[in-house]
Design brief:
With 457 residues, the protein is an alpha/beta fold. It has one domain: TIM Barrel (Alpha-Beta Barrel). The protein has 16 helices and 13 strands. The protein binds 5-hydroxymethyl-3,4-dihydroxypiperidine.
């Protein structure tokens, strides 16, 4: 079952198999070489925000174990590594002086990948906003978008010659709605007005970032990573179907619309537009510059029903029960067909460029026993979702790669270290890395693929 060689045979020769991480989740070394705090350092040090008050001070100590971790990636036989760059290492106060030592670290990372024949997929922003910018309003302030543009330009001027692809943002849904409306992520706000400001200024920052990247390196493959939601109505009834359409606009349309059509969705604008910040002339053109690729992070479907409460705020939905019985250890429903539904729907609604699955994976918390980790359910999850990806390729969708989330167990944001997504186990006491059953299987898949029909890049 799930023979990696058979699965490998279903992918075209130039498909990219990779692994992914993010800076705050693995690097640690929070105070080393000039790094200053991010909003996540502050948030995780506040009681009640992160499970067990865990923080990113040490994490996987990746900053100090770079070479060992690059060897680990190489040992998995994958052809690409997706990582993020920590803004608080590069411009520690958000604006102001550039920290050369921070840039040096990513120089070593990128050079280490190149030396090992691994493609470098960098993400410029994976949620670690320099804390100093919070004093000016963080993402709710327009000037943060311009600070981000300078940061993007600084990074690309230094690393752009050796990157294979760059993403401006990872999952703005999280840094907007989860952070400013639902209060789960830093800075922990629960305020629609703040969230609407964060939304537009994040979209603007994306566009300004694209312009900065292109000005420095016009040939660099530039994209955006979105955790688009596969939205399913709780019933066939009219009210639930309408609720699902509103949810689509709220969770997906407010990012896809501006970027790929140059507009916010109408339903959203008529419900909440008056509370948005001023959209200045040229903003939508800046946001909607063509991209070379986009990334989808997919884990689980979103099921919604109509919220009958009087005065319920747009999108006026409540969660509907899961359909599949299987859940991962974090409680997320496992339902691979939703990945296919999502890609088909998004491609029908928008003119999208080539797509990478930039994250997919599962949370299972089994530990090491006799030197091994038997995480069969994660292996099955990845195999099943790769199967759907292969189906999509057969149907003609431009799926170009797949990155397993994650290379290794790491700081799972508000869940701290208790939730594990790695295909490599991390013992946080000793920092010992143990490749799990899923990691060995993924290496076999990548190996079978490479030895089979992989074209030279
Ligand atoms: O760990 C996160 C990652 O940072 C962003 N995408 C989802 C993952 C699992 O929650």
């Amino acid at each position: 079952m799930n023979d990696p060689r058979i699965l490998a045979g279903r992918f075209p020769g130039d498909f990219v198999f990779g692994v992914a991480t993010a800076a705050f989740q693995i690097e640690g070394a929070a105070k080393m070489d000039g790094r200053k705090p991010s909003i996540w350092d502050a948030f995780s040090n506040m009681p009640g925000r992160v499970y067990g008050r865990h923080n990113g001070d040490v994490a996987c100590d990746h900053y100090n174990r770079l070479e060992e971790d690059l060897d680990l990636i190489q040992s998995l036989g994958v052809s690409a590594y997706r990582f993020s760059i920590a803004w608080p290492r590069i411009i520690p106060e958000g604006t102001g002086p550039v920290n050369e030592k921070g840039l040096d670290f990513y120089d070593r990372l990128v050079d280490g990948l190149k030396a090992r024949g691994i493609k470098a997929f960098a993400t410029l922003y994976h949620w670690d906003l320099p804390l100093m910018l919070a004093g000016d309003g963080g993402w709710t302030a327009r000037q943060t978008a311009y600070a981000y543009q300078r940061y993007a330009k600084t990074v690309i001027a230094r690393l752009g010659d050796r990157l294979d692809a760059v993403a401006t943002f990872n999952e703005p849904w999280c840094s907007v709605w989860l952070s400013h409306l639902y209060g789960i992520h830093a800075p922990g706000e629960c305020n629609m007005d703040a969230a609407l400001h964060a939304l537009h200024f994040t979209n603007l920052a994306h566009g300004l970032g694209v312009a900065a990247i292109r000005a420095e390196r016009p040939q660099l493959a530039t994209g955006l990573v979105l955790n688009a939601h596969s939205i399913h109505a709780g019933s066939d009834g009219e009210a639930d179907q309408a609720a699902a359409a509103r949810a689509f606009d709220f969770h997906n349309g407010v990012f896809f619309g501006p970027v790929f059509k140059g507009d916010y969705p109408e339903s959203f604008l008529s419900a909440l537009g008056a509370r948005m910040p001023a959209i200045e002339p040229g903003d939508m053109e800046t946001i909607s510059q063509p991209l070379d690729w986009w990334g989808l992070n997919y884990y689980t479907p979103m099921r919604v029903s109509h919220d009958p409460a009087e005065g319920a705020e747009f999108p006026a939905t409540v969660p509907a029960p899961p359909v599949a019985e299987i859940r991962t250890d974090i409680g997320w429903e496992v339902f691979a067909p939703a990945l296919g539904d999502l890609i088909r729907k998004l491609n029908a609604d928008y003119a999208l460029p080539a797509c990478y699955i930039t994250e997919n994976g599962a949370c299972y918390n089994m530990g090491v026993e006799n030197g091994a980790v038997d995480d069969r359910p994660r292996l099955d999850y990845i195999a099943e979702h790769l199967g759907v990806t292969a189906d999509l390729i057969r149907e003609g969708y431009p799926m170009r790669g797949y990155f397993a989330w994650s290379l290794m167990d790491n700081f799972e944001w508000a869940e701290g270290y208790r939730m594990r997504f790695g295909i490599v186990h991390v013992d946080y006491e000793t920092q010992l890395r143990t490749i799990k059953k899923s990691g060995k299987w993924y290496a076999e898949l990548a190996g079978a693929f490479r030895k089979g029909r992989h074209r030279a890049a």
